[in-house]
Amino acid sequence: MIQEYRFGKMVIDGEAYDKDLVIAKGKVIPNWWRDKGHLLQLSDLKKVLEENQPEVVVIGKGQFGMMSISDEFLNFLHERNIELQHKKTGKAVQIFNKYYNQGKDVMGAFHLTC
């Protein structure tokens, strides 16, 4: 699904994106915005999580891993038995593609820059 990632750019199914994005149920949700920039809060993804109810969530924390994840977000996933993988975006892309190719119900949220 994700064909390429490099700083500030991701190519998915032949289409290039240059802003942070979410992938749920195989669909790209472009221009993902977080209220606190480099802090992922539950409010940043709660609606998408509730609508899609994935088995696995993969978070790309940026090329250098600058984005952190709030305890509230971690607890929400834990309470619902949703597996979480969070890595620098390059590694997160590999993990997302692996789950996607295995047919898992995987959702990804990717910070494309720092």
Outline the structure in words.
This protein is globular. Strand 1 (2-6) and strand 2 form a beta hairpin. The protein has 3 helices and 10 strands. The chain has a single domain (2-111), classed as MTH938-like (Hypothetical Protein Mth938, Chain: A), CATH 3.40.1230. It has 114 residues and is of the alpha/beta class. Helices cover 29% and strands 35% of the residues. The model has no long low-confidence stretch (mean pLDDT 97). The chain has helices at 42-52, 71-79, 89-101; strands spanning 2-6, 9-12, 15-17, 21-24, 27-29, 39-40, 56-61, 68-69, 83-87, 106-111. The two termini are 22 Å apart. The strands form 3 sheets. A 5-stranded mixed β-sheet has the order 5-4-10-7-9, with helices on both faces.
Topology (elements, then pairings):
Elements: E1 2-6, E2 9-12, E3 15-17, E4 21-24, E5 27-29, E6 39-40, H1 42-52, E7 56-61, E8 68-69, H2 71-79, E9 83-87, H3 89-101, E10 106-111
Distance between the termini: 22 Å
SSE order in H/E notation?
EEEEEEHEEHEHE
Tell me the strand percentage band: 35-45%
What is the number of helices?
3
**CATH superfamily descriptor:** MTH938-like
Structural class label = alpha/beta
Biggest sheet details: 5 strands, mixed
The radius of gyration is 13 Å
Q: Could you please say which CATH topology applies here?
A: Hypothetical Protein Mth938, Chain: A
CATH class membership:
Alpha Beta
- CATH architecture level-2 label: 3-Layer(aba) Sandwich
Helix percentage:
25-40%
In which order are the strands of the major sheet placed? 5-4-10-7-9
